[in-house]
Design a protein that fits this description.
Length: 586
């Protein structure tokens, strides 16, 4: 992969590196190159490179970029979210030493936690979108300034405890406690991971820094650090993400003496777009070396010009125009700053454009199942054994075998390739999607000599998987009916126009970005406005606009639709910052 001189300097830096640079400047590209270099330089057979980031989508982005650009033995890298890292490498192997966990526990996933929190919020008169903080800091404190939010959080913990469950936030805290209790954990991890690479570091929470720093600080052989991020894109501040300065990172990773780098070029967007979005961080005139340098593209803003009831039609028209002009479905992304309006927009777009494919996580049959073991098996069951997908499918098969052995303590004689053969050989007469998956899972269990009846944890995940998949399919308005063909289409490579939140598409890029819901209350979110000093909202707003606008390579369409009303019946107004931004829109 070609690297600029600045990128090469960072990638080849001896020692530790911290890179902050603007969107599209190639931070993830440099990080991927560094991971590949680190793997090549691993000294011992058992050493690995650790690559962590904040969201599953970002972690998958790193994995795919590595797969597309380098030939690397997958076992030499562990890439994933910090939550999954803590679960897999700290909680699972050491749970028996943890007083809150040693009597048994299981993980409550997003689906379950959301259900409990929503019910408690409703009981307390809070609205679904009122934020409840559930993240712990390294002192074990969960901060909620609102009294009712605090009560919800406490009752939520009681409910989880009564079910012998922990959520992801608790798993981080218990992992950190275990590391404090048993210093050998950090020693062991630093012996395995000779390199620690962190992407999107601005989204990292206090406890996550503490866990990574503990590995570094307690080690005899210091892992090298390669940390990349952009404080101006820190849109997870509401759930504790924080961007650290070089000095703060040096204080966290003791004696790390981190080298600082920045990249000045933008390889993604037209110069016009770079100039446009740079204003959201108070800087004008970023450099651009983008391939679209001479292409001015489009920047349009429909400020209160479209009624919310006609919004889907207006967006559908834009999409049709783009597709007629030669764009592919994968070139287009529709974004809103918050989840609230996305589901109904997706449904309307699907109805208006029945022949267009959409990649809309809100309507996915597997929404909220990221951490369910059976999701990985589904991916194998629902994808074809083609050459193009071979390396990805081998990775999934490895993940299945590792998960079975690390989490469920089932060791198997099978290699990943043999497991692939087993799953590829599965045949069924049924056309019903969930039935097909059930049969396939049972076939695999049989081949692996495993029995669901005797494995409570595996069975619980199995039941939960089907409960959620069925409810997702029932609630998603026919986007994915319960058929084998529809479920298979979900994992096809070209998945269509993305409809997601700005949090969901961080780090990604599209030729055309269509953003809607650019209204005060969504951007910034009410929780950053109500009972907050003005700068909190302004900060959140500029960062979100910065992230949204910088996803575009060539064309940016912005909508602040009229006609939306708050629960109190007041009209939603255009985002302050956008309203005040005087720009020569097309
Ligand atoms: N040296 C380079 N030569 C050609 N293309 C490059 C180069 N560096 C980066 N790119 C391309 O520019 C685009 C943006 O890169 P990348 O996603 O790594 O940026 P980023 O800094 O991580 O962005 P963000 O902050 O938005 O996540 C990608 O398509 C990438 O392949």
């Amino acid at each position: 992969m070609k690297l600029s001189i600045e990128q090469q300097a960072a990638v080849n830096c001896i020692g530790n590196a911290y890179i902050t640079a603007c969107p599209g400047s190639g931070k993830t590209r440099a990080l991927t190159a560094r991971i590949a270099k680190n793997v090549q330089e691993l000294k011992h057979r058992n050493n690995k490179v650790l690559a962590v980031t904040f969201t599953n989508r970002a972690a998958n982005e790193i994995k795919s970029r590595l797969e597309e650009n380098y030939t690397i033995e997958s076992g030499r890298i562990w890439a994933g979210t910090i939550h999954s890292f803590a679960l897999e490498w700290i909680i699972k192997p050491y749970a028996s030493y943890s007083p809150p966990l040693n009597a048994g526990y299981s993980i409550a996933d997003e689906f379950e936690t959301r259900k409990i929190l929503n019910k408690l919020k409703a009981d307390k008169g809070l609205r679904v979108f009122d934020e409840i903080n559930t993240t712990f800091n390294r002192q074990g404190v969960v901060e909620n300034s609102d009294r009712r939010a605090k009560e919800v959080e406490q009752e939520y913990r009681h409910i989880l405890k009564s079910r012998k469950k922990i959520d992801f936030d608790q798993s981080l805290y218990f992992a950190f406690q275990l590391m404090e209790l048993i210093p050998e954990i950090a020693h062991t991890l630093s012996n395995i991971f000779s390199n620690i690479c962190i992407d999107e570091v601005q989204d990292t929470q206090d406890l996550q820094y503490a866990i990574l720093a503990k590995i570094f600080n307690e080690s005899f052989h210091k892992p090298t650090l390669f940390i990349v991020g952009d404080g101006n894109q820190a849109i997870y501040g509401g759930i504790g993400g924080k961007s650290l300065s070089l000095a703060e990172l040096n204080a966290e990773f003791i004696g790390s003496n981190i080298n600082y780098f920045t990249f000045s070029d933008n390889y993604r967007s037209t110069q016009r777009l770079v100039d446009y979005f740079s204003v959201f961080r108070g800087v004008q005139g970023g450099l651009s070396k983008a391939e679209h340098k001479n292409n001015q593209g489009i920047i349009s803003f429909f400020n209160q010009a479209v009624d919310k009831d006609q919004l889907a039609e207006a967006i559908a028209e834009l999409i049709k125009g783009e597709l007629n002009n030669g764009s592919s479905e994968n070139d287009i992304c529709v974004i809103a700053p918050q989840w609230a309006p996305i589901r109904s927009m997706t449904k309307k777009l699907i109805a208006l454009l029945p022949n267009v494919r959409f990649d809309a996580p809100a309507l996915s049959p597997f929404h909220g199942q990221h951490d369910n073991f059976w999701l990985i098996v589904s991916k194998l069951a629902l994808t074809e054994p083609s050459g193009r997908l071979l390396s990805v499918r081998v990775r999934w098969a490895n993940e299945i075998l590792n998960h079975l052995s690390d989490v469920y303590h089932h060791t198997s004689e099978l290699t990943a390739k043999k497991l692939l053969k087993v799953i590829n050989s599965f045949q069924s007469e049924t056309r019903i999607g969930t039935e097909y998956l059930k049969e396939c899972f049972e076939f695999m269990l049989d081949e692996l000599d495993l029995d669901l009846v005797s494995d409570v944890a595996l069975k619980e995940q199995f039941d939960l998987f089907f409960e959620k998949a069925t409810s997702n399919i029932e609630n998603n308005n026919g986007q994915y009916e319960d058929s084998v063909v529809a479920l298979k289409s979900f994992f096809k490579e070209s998945t269509g126009i993305v409809v997601n939140s700005c949090h969901g598409v961080k780090g990604e890029e599209y030729k055309t970005v269509i953003a809607f819901g650019l209204l005060k209350g969504f951007i910034p979110h009410w929780s950053d406005i109500i009972n907050q000093p003005a700068y909190v909202g302004q900060n959140a707003e500029s960062k979100m606009l910065y992230v949204i606008a910088s996803r575009a390579k060539e064309k940016l369409y912005l909508f602040a639709e009229y006609g939306r009303r708050t629960q109190g019946g007041n009209p939603y107004e255009t985002s302050n910052l956008l309203n005040a931004y005087s720009y020569q829109y097309d």
